[in-house]
Amino acid sequence: MYLIIGSGWSGCVLAHLLAIKYNKKVILLEKNKYIGGKQADYYSNNVIVPRFFFEIIKTNKISVIEFLENMGKWIYLDKENKGYLFAGVPVKGYSVFMENLVSHSNIKILLETDYFQFRNQTNEIFEKIIYTGKLDDYFSQMPKLDYISTVVSHITINLNGYFQNGLKTSLNPLEDQYEWKHIYNDSINKGKTIISRIRNSHLNNEPYICNASPSLKSTLKEYEELVNKERNVIFIGRLAQYRTWKIDELIQNVFDNIQYILKDPIQDNSKEYVEMVEYALLNYNKQLLKKVNKEIFELEKRKNKIENYIDKEVWKFKLKMGKSVNLNLTNEIVICRYNEDVNWIYNLLDQFNWIQKIKIFNKGETLNIIHPKVFIENVKNIGREGETYLSFIINNYNHLPENIWFLQANPFDHSPDFTYLLTIEAIKNYNYDFQPLSYYYNKTVYNPINDKSSYILGNKVIQYCVDKNTQQIEGVHKHFDREHQKKVERLGNDYIDNLCNKINIEKPKQIIPFTWGALFYVNKEKLIQYSVEVFKKLREELLNKNDQGGDEGYALERFWQYLLTNNSFSSVEEFNKYYNL
């Protein structure tokens, strides 16, 4: 088990190699809420802009070029490649490129996690610790080193053409101005242009490069001595090795050090101890033999800790290496939209790098959203959200993403804390198989004020239940819906049982769990437990009497959670006990 601190170039490339090429388990810690370190970027008005610094990768290193081109698509900048075999930037930006590097089941990512809060608890757990952060943060007792930071600002200008002649204009020795339209397709931002100014600073709040000077020579020598004394910590990267490397040099540095990093300290030390044992035996040195045996015992104890670690919780975070939502797999958000405003998705994409794809099924007016992670499919306005969900499952049954969020186009009506429920910390607290994401029908019709029975990290989520015959809410949230009673009278009290018979699944007990608004997360395994024919029959039943789904659509909303979890209960008391309510 390897622990890597920092998700910049060095951390991400190293995690990728260890996990994929060498099949090692890796935990990647990042103090920020995003992957990419100082190279991270994000979308502003549909255009990729840097958070701290912008750098075009230019290199003649063949191994680096092969690695980059194998890992993603690139925009090649011909005007910048004078003297270089390769000059370009990732098509979808650096953050997406680096997220893809660390998207693997062998890698666990912990964002917004400060290593130094848990440093003393980790050093004896991990086989190797790779530190990529600032040297003077690690050795806080030492004099501070000097770094160059940046101040970044972005402005949007209404302009059809270009604001400046090229990508980069130097305003002064410390400040450059970039116009992103020179890189990214003009049609993405038609009628406007995004300008970014990046100014070097010595504020040291977010250093991106070292500012070495002759006066630091003796101090750096002291740092070097401290680094060499660290037992199982390896310092890799621009800040950790205090270098002014370009990106290609950072990547090459990882390539050059990978075998050293893989070198097993236990095996090496064990060999040394065997030689010491032989020496002790030959010289009848009982005292030395006793010391060696003690050290071998400590080594074996540490080795057992490492081997057993996968089955334990990750110290204070309680992140189990098993039944938790694994965001390193494929993640997709599915949205059913009529004419709602869905610009809120930009906020999600800016905040959450784990989102790989948002698929919007548009049943209304033309939707003009342009983003590399957003895909829009215009479809007929039939069957409400139930038909959309079922069609998605049917059409993608053989290649479903591992993690799926099914949403109506305005989730905030049912889930006022919806955005916060998509943070990584909240997702860690999901039920692994299925997680309701709603709080109420809406704040005026039914609002369970002060109910804290099922909050996730203080965010409003409530697990409801209904009687399968009346389809009315039971339990602590008991609520009578007169309009829904009329629907049930038309459908019949035995509709849920009859539906189960039609689609050939087991009928539930009397009480079934229920999610308002059909807002939920589900793991792929809960979908493929059934054949695709089950979902086809369910869609046929939904549209049997009415293209809009009619009463059947409202019944389906109450049926989803039972269908996907197979949970049902003989009584409300049994339901409460199961969900710890």
Task: Tell me what you see in this structure.
There is one protein chain. By secondary structure, this protein is an alpha/beta fold. It folds into three domains: 261 residues, Rossmann fold (3-Layer(aba) Sandwich); 53 residues; 248 residues, no CATH class. The protein is 33% helix and 19% strand. The chain has 18 helices and 23 strands. The strands form six sheets. It has a six-stranded mixed beta sheet. A five-stranded parallel beta sheet has the order 8-2-1-9-15, with helices on one face. Strands 11-12-13-10-14 form a five-stranded antiparallel beta sheet, with no helix packed on it. A hairpin with a 2-residue loop joins strand 3 and strand 4. Helix 1 packs across helix 7, helix 11 runs antiparallel to helix 16 and helix 13 packs across helix 17. The chain is elongated and about 85 Å long.
Oligomer: single chain
Instruction: Give the CATH class of the largest domain.
Output: Alpha Beta
What's the domain count? 3
Structural class: alpha/beta
| Rg over CA atoms | 28 Å
| Order of strands in the sheet with most strands | 18-17-16-19-23-20
Kindly report the average pLDDT value. 83
Euclidean distance between termini CA atoms = 37 Å
Number of helices: 18
- How many β strands by DSSP? 23
| Major beta sheet summary | 6 strands, mixed
- CATH architecture tag of the largest domain: 3-Layer(aba) Sandwich
Residue windows where pLDDT falls under 50 for at least 5 positions = 265-274, 276-285, 305-323
What fraction of the residues are assigned to beta strands by DSSP? 15-25%
* Fraction of residues in helix: 25-40%
CATH topology of the largest domain: Rossmann fold
How would you name the CATH homologous superfamily of the largest domain?
NAD(P)-binding Rossmann-like Domain
What form results from the Cα inertia axes? elongated
